[in-house]
Design a protein that fits this description.
It is a single chain. This protein is mostly helical and 407 residues long. Helix content is 68%, strand content 5%. Strands 1-2 form a two-stranded antiparallel sheet. A two-stranded antiparallel ribbon has the order 3-4. The chain has a two-stranded antiparallel ribbon with strand order 5-6. It is globular.
């Protein structure tokens, strides 16, 4: 492969890795910070997101590094190559199987709504999740037990299963059970859900539960259908070239064109970057939760940066005396020496009424204590004024006194 194509491949991998990491972190934060999204089957979504996140943190940067700096790759018999191949196959299989079971959960919730709580319990969901990961671990361990093998592919810049005739049994087994079956299950279930949605939209736009009936716009069904069709299309688009290339190399005994292998590998890894964004942007409940989480995180980050930031050096006052000693003064800590030397009397915490607080705002600044003068100078709000009401009342400013001082 030419250096230009290798640089392009590395750049695409870096972009896909960044999108994968950001999207899956956002999805995880949305799930963690919004308890209304928690359910007995939330483990499928978490498993799917964590698998994609691990792919973005491990496999994609490894492929970009090899394309730029080490095209020959590590030795195929080495621990690094065998371990990276095992991790690549494990995360691929767990991602697609977790997505398949999340689709089964959605299908059950829509088509068997009355018995959904009896079908999917917490124990059953946990048992299915454990079985999924045991299957993925067994599939990825087979090449390490000499049923198949891992090797470095110079056209893919990754350590992956060796697609050769000698490994045809393993490749066929993994292709059918690890990729084709869950992908077909997702597409078929989404297709049936779309059919039910369109049929419901034509039949009527009212849905009833045990309490009442409510109106459902027909465009909601169509919007959900578009989302599911888009998800199925992206899944097929990302996986079909990779599976076709693998089967061709296995049963023909010839290598695919390097551009085809490279492009198909990038596509199948890009699917891990598209999945969280499709979930967060197209599903209404995740989209609403994301719009609540993102401003909250930005506000916390800005508040933390303001609290931890120091005073700019240009805003500090630098004074020197005859002995060349330098003193740095912070404008925020500067107070009047005369006012600081006055001992403040102890005030009793009394309470003011709301009417008295409103009357307090109309008092001239010259006739108020120094604490209220500071409030008027800095433009404090009524909420800040409420926090200082014990001081104002304890100083003896009753409602009659204030009314006599108003202009």
């Amino acid at each position: 492969m030419t250096p230009v194509l290798r640089v392009l491949y590395a750049g695409l991998m870096v972009l896909s890795s960044a999108a994968c990491i950001c999207g899956n972190l956002l999805l995880l934060l949305v799930l963690i910070l919004n308890k209304e999204l928690w359910s007995d089957t939330v483990g499928f979504t978490l498993s799917h997101s964590l698998s994609d996140l691990a792919l973005g943190l491990s496999t994609m940067p490894f492929a970009a590094h090899n394309a730029l700096f080490r095209p020959a790759g590590p030795p195929s018999e080495g621990v690094l190559c065998q371990g990276s191949g095992f991790l690549f196959l494990l995360l691929q299989t767990s991602s697609v199987h977790s997505l398949a079971w999340a689709t089964v959960d959605k299908f059950t919730e829509i088509c068997f709504a009355l018995s959904y709580s009896r079908i999917w319990t917490g124990r059953r969901s946990l048992a299915v999740l454990v079985l999924v990961w045991l299957f993925c671990l067994a599939s990825a361990s087979l090449p390490l037990l000499e049923f198949g093998s891992y090797s470095y592919s110079e056209s893919r810049f990754l350590c992956c299963p060796r697609f050769m005739r000698s490994s045809s049994s393993f490749v066929l087994l993994w292709t059918v059970t690890g990729a084709v079956a869950p992908i077909l299950a997702v597409c078929c279930l989404y297709g049936y859900i779309v059919y039910v949605a369109l049929k419901q939209a034509k039949r009527g736009t009212f849905m009833c539960n045990e309490l009442h009936c409510f109106y459902v716009p027909a465009k909601n069904y169509l919007r959900s259908s578009v989302v599911m069709v888009t998800t199925s299309g992206c899944l097929l688009l990302c996986w079909l070239p990779y599976i076709s290339s693998a089967l061709y190399e296995t049963f023909s005994g010839q290598q695919s064109p390097s551009a085809t292998s490279t492009f198909s590998t990038w596509l199948v890894l890009t699917g891990a970057a598209l999945n969280p964004w499709i979930t967060c942007l197209t599903q209404a409940r995740y989209r609403v939760a994301a719009w609540r989480v993102v401003p909250r995180l930005l506000q916390k980050c800005c508040r933390t940066s303001l609290e931890t930031s120091d005073i700019h050096p240009n805003n500090r006052i630098r004074t020197t005396n005859s002995s060349t000693k330098t003193l740095i003064l912070d404008p925020r800590d500067h107070t009047d020496a005369a006012s600081s030397s006055v001992q403040k009397p102890k005030l009793l915490p009394l309470q003011c009424s709301q009417r008295e607080l409103w009357e307090m705002q109309s008092i001239p600044a010259t006739g108020l204590p120094s604490a209220h003068q500071n409030l008027t100078e800095t433009g404090r709000t009524l909420q800040d004024l409420t926090e200082m009401q014990p001081c104002m009342c304890a100083a003896g400013w009753t409602g009659s006194d204030r009314s006599s001082r108003t202009i």
